[in-house]
Specification:
By secondary structure, this protein is an alpha/beta fold.
């Protein structure tokens, strides 16, 4: 069974109603990203940061997976698939995909500020009164700017095993996630789905670009490239 590794970004969930990470003006939901996505921002104003992620979490609970999420889950019947996502939502899981690596954390989890290995499932809001079992403040289980990406080595190892690499809804400009494409085997087939593709077909051997949004792009991929 061929092994497909899928790299997904904000464009994967945009059609479900999840707003992309940053608008054209560089703001995230009206905030400077360093205010709400950095350890320094959390230290300066933890209440603002907790409220920001509480709103993101409640928004996530109101949306559903789109047809692209569901199509990837269905492909598990034909291929050995692992999804490496930059997204912090759980839409891949809800669609039925079973092998997912969340590079940038998970919105429906929280963790201790004392011990990052103390991680808890969470669907309700976090407050400044919420503590881990050791008595330390809880924070979103999100990789913020300036923090290490703990699952990066695992993602590199997984990517290196790909027979086919799918890249969906990501600009391939955010590092270290964008570097994963450098770890595939020579001549691995790459399919890049994005309405505004940031790389050229000549950039890699065996690269096919599908310049569409995720839902239509995945449909085209399945019907024209993966059914053979």
């Amino acid at each position: 069974m061929k092994k497909i590794i899928v790299l997904t970004g904000a464009g994967m969930s945009a059609e479900s109603g999840i707003k992309t990470f940053r608008d054209a003006d560089g703001l995230w939901e009206g905030h400077d990203v360093m205010e709400v996505a950095s350890p320094q921002g959390f230290a300066r104003n933890p209440e603002l940061v907790l409220d920001f992620y509480n709103q993101r979490r409640q928004q996530l609970l109101k949306v559903t997976p789109n047809s692209a999420h569901i199509a990837l889950a269905d492909l598990e019947k034909l291929f050995n698939i692992t999804i490496i996502t930059q997204n912090v939502d759980d839409l891949h899981e809800r669609a039925g995909s079973s092998n997912i690596v969340h590079l940038h954390g998970e919105l429906l989890k929280v963790r201790s500020t004392f011990n990052p290995n103390l991680i808890y499932e969470r669907t309700k809001d976090i407050t400044l009164e919420d503590r881990c079992e050791k008595g330390s403040q809880l924070r979103p289980h999100i990789v913020w700017f300036g923090e290490q990406v703990p699952l990066l080595e695992k993602a590199i190892e997984i990517t290196s095993t790909a027979d086919i690499l799918l890249i969906i809804g990501t600009s391939m400009q955010v590092y270290p996630a964008a570097s994963l494409v450098n770890y595939i085997k020579r001549n691995t087939a790459i399919y890049f789905i994005d309405p505004k593709p940031s790389i050229q077909a000549s950039s890699f051997n065996n690269l096919t670009i599908i310049p569409e949004k995720a839902t239509l792009g995945v449909q085209i991929l399945v019907e024209n490239y993966l059914n053979g």
